[in-house]
């Protein structure tokens, strides 16, 4: 089955998604059209670069094109809800970039529309689809490092002056833009939802968070500490600590190609302070592409795209690796974490005009 894509948006991530698609067999994936309302000239450039025949200046044209099986939504956060409504009500399958909505109310509306129209829908958590991420899940499931007790992760870049980052109306801020990456990996690594979670952070002049430290406590007494920042460059690494060993993923942890797995080796007469380790490095190199990529390892978006195709071939309406329930819980967590820092958006639950 060939999956025929329509691309909604023509920014940096749209380019990179097209790079990923270009590495997949043309008999499995093809791009039928690209649409851009705000800067149509950039859509023309991408169409020429990736040999896309149809270029639309109206998103409705994508919704009404009978040759398109699925739409990839790669526009600013505030446009996710109206565009998901448009495509889902036209019975198009949809892959939407994260965050799904500006709050859990918007995310709930989108998921319900997908169910009502009986189409496939998924939020773009591409990190989970990398071969290295699959190996990570297997390593933990096989008890190689024992029960996971602690996870520490940082993700930060100096980019707080960008419009999409600093403006509330765009759903800006560190947690909204980057928080999904360490949060969704924490849920995957611990294999359950946290019993409690909290955040502390600093807000910028526009009222969005510039830095946030999140703490998640899980039912097995495991703890994750996660830090995201839009005004400070951080190590951007992931460390997982188990009872029998540890796993490290270096920068960029969210699109991994290498796992560093260390297991503890007990020697006769050793004490708790004597830690002898056996370390193994597993590598998962990415396919090469001659196209320019804006983000690290962006060609790895190919894994997400092919996973979507496999789901649709099987008649599935959601992906087990990023279920609708996962997306709704993430939206709930992000909204709660924002509120704990004093960052509110119109449409949030239990928010008054005085809070905005």
Quick take:
With 356 residues, the chain is α/β, with parallel strands linked by helices.
Task: Describe the protein in words.
By secondary structure, the protein is an alpha/beta fold. Helices cover 32% and strands 24% of the residues. It has ten helices and 14 strands. It has helices spanning 12-22, 40-50, 59-63, 80-89, 104-116, 131-141, 163-166, 174-190, 301-313, 324-341, and strands at residues 3-8, 29-35, 54-56, 70-73, 93-97, 121-124, 148-156, 196-203, 209-217, 223-229, 238-242, 245-249, 258-264, 277-283. β8 and β9 (209-217) form a beta hairpin. α1 (12-22) crosses α9, α4 packs parallel to α5 and α5 runs antiparallel to α10 (324-341). The longest helix has 18 residues, at 324-341. It is globular. The mean pLDDT is 96.
Topology (elements, then pairings):
Layout: E1 3-8, H1 12-22, E2 29-35, H2 40-50, E3 54-56, H3 59-63, E4 70-73, H4 80-89, E5 93-97, H5 104-116, E6 121-124, H6 131-141, E7 148-156, H7 163-166, H8 174-190, E8 196-203, E9 209-217, E10 223-229, E11 238-242, E12 245-249, E13 258-264, E14 277-283, H9 301-313, H10 324-341
Parallel strand pairs: 1-2, 1-4, 2-3, 4-5, 5-6, 7-10
Antiparallel strand pairs: 7-11, 8-9, 9-10, 11-12, 12-13, 13-14
Number of separate helices: 10
Biggest beta sheet attributes: 8 strands, mixed
The residue ranges in which pLDDT falls below 50 over 5 or more consecutive positions are: none
Mean pLDDT: 96
Order of helices and strands: EHEHEHEHEHEHEHHEEEEEEEHH
Structural class: alpha/beta
> Which strands sit side by side, in order, in the main sheet?
8-9-10-7-11-12-13-14
């Amino acid at each position: 089955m060939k999956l025929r894509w329509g691309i909604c948006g023509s920014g940096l991530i749209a380019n990179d998604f097209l790079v990923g698609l270009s590495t997949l067999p043309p008999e499995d994936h093809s791009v039928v059209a690209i649409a851009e309302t705000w800067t149509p000239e950039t859509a023309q450039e991408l169409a020429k670069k990736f040999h896309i025949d149809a270029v639309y200046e109206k998103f409705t044209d994508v919704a009404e094109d009978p040759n398109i099986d699925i739409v990839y939504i790669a526009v600013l956060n505030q446009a996710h809800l109206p565009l998901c409504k448009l495509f889902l009500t036209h019975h198009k399958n949809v892959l939407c970039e994260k965050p799904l909505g500006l709050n859990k109310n918007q995310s709930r509306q989108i998921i319900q529309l997908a169910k009502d129209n009986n189409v496939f829908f998924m939020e773009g958590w591409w990190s989970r689809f990398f071969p290295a991420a699959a190996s990570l899940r297997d390593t933990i499931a096989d008890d190689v490092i024992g029960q996971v007790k602690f996870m520490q992760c940082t993700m930060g870049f100096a980019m707080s002056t960008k419009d999409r980052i600093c403006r509330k109306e765009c759903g800006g801020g560190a947690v909204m833009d980057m928080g999904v990456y360490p949060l969704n990996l924490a849920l995957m690594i611990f294999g359950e939802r946290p019993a409690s979670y909290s955040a502390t952070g600093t807000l910028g002049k526009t009222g969005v968070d510039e830095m946030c430290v999140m703490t998640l406590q899980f039912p097995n007494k495991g703890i994750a500490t996660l830090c995201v920042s839009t005004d400070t460059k951080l190590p951007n690494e992931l460390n997982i600590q188990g009872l029998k060993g540890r796993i490290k993923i270096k920068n960029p942890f969210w699109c991994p190609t290498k796992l560093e797995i260390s297991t503890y080796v007990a020697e006769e007469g050793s004490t708790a302070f004597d830690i002898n380790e056996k370390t193994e490095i597993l590598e998962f190199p990415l396919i090469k592409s001659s196209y320019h990529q804006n983000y690290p390892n962006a060609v790895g978006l190919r894994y997400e795209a092919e996973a979507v195709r496999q789901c649709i071939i099987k008649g599935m309406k959601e992906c087990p690796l990023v279920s609708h329930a996962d997306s709704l819980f993430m939206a709930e967590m992000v909204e709660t974490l924002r509120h704990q820092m004093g960052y509110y958006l119109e449409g949030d639950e239990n928010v008054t005009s005085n809070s905005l």
